[in-house]
Amino acid sequence: MTRPFAYAPPDRIVEGPGGVVLEGEEARHLARSLRVRPGETIMVADGTGIVHSVTITEVEGDTVRGTSTARRLFDPPVPEIVLFQSVSRPQRMDIAVARSAESGVCVLVPVTSRRSARMKAGAVAGRAERWRRIALEASKVAQRPLPLVVAEEAGWPLDERSFARCELLLVLWEEERSRCLADALPTAPPASVGFLVGPEGGLEEEEVAELTSLGALAVTLGDLVLRTESAGAHCAMLVRYHYGCLRPAAAFNESGEA
Question: Are 30 and 168 contacting, i.e. CB atoms less than 8 angstroms apart?
Fold first, then answer.
């Protein structure tokens, strides 16, 4: 049975009885929705890659306390996957964020490309907090040691600074016919792979040309046309499969530090 999973900042997780303190919405979800009780075990991640096995000692109001009985440090994934997601209509964008968290995307960068859904000035920044909440909740469901990070918006045209963290940059484009995703991936995993997904209307040819002039590679995922809200998640899983990242981690050591 999958144990409840929660996030807490490192300063709320200390050694000793009752040293793990969950408050606010996180605690309310555990207490009211999941109905955790003293004596039960949950998993608590601190957002830095450390996951604790925690025995609940107290559930009171908006506070849940517990004791860390074991912990494990998970290494950051290699390659790091960065999704440059063209902004789409609100519901589609919410789905894109959730699916990205569930599929192992490390960082999601909202991009306003030429055919992106039109929003008032500052609207993307205003919705970013909602996307971050969705990312955290979906990361929790996926039980990720490191939650999906939703970065600040990147405006168009993009430049080399936008892709500075990406060793390899791919553009998913339905008009590409000569290079598939597998052709573009090197044998050894790069430190980071970034890929850009266009909006509902797709990327314009001029936009793709601008990106390839910066060193990006246009790739196709085959004959199927994917929705903007699902293309990034599909690509992330394909990249992870290609580099053997879908093997399960070793069992969590309940007797102490792993």
Answer: no
- Give which of 49, 38, 56, 44 is closest to 12, Cα–Cα: 44
Partners of 104 in the β-ladder: none
What confidence score (pLDDT) does residue 110 get? Answer: 94
* Residue listed under structure tokens 């306003």: 112
Q: Is 33 exposed, middle or buried (0-12, 13-18, 19+ CB in 10 A)?
A: exposed
pTM (2 decimals)? 0.91
When the candidates are 1.25.60.10, 3.30.420.40, 1.20.1600.10, 2.40.240.20, the CATH number that belongs to 5-73 is 2.40.240.20
Residue 162's SS3 state is helix
- Segments of the chain assigned E as strands: 5-7, 20-23, 41-45, 50-60, 63-73, 80-86, 107-111, 149-150, 168-172, 192-197, 217-219
Residues of the chain with CATH 3.40.1280.10: 80-242
Determine the CATH number of domain 80-242: 3.40.1280.10
Dump strand ranges (E) for 33-75.
Answer: 41-45, 50-60, 63-73
Q: Tell me the per-residue pLDDT of 99-134, one tens digit each, with 9 for 90 and over.
A: 999 999 999 999 988 777 676 666 777 799 999 999
Tokens 């144990």: give the residue.
3
pLDDT (tens digit per residue) in 66-95: 999 999 999 999 999 999 999 999 999 999
pLDDT of residue 256: 52
CATH 2.40.240.20, the chain: domain bounds: 5-73
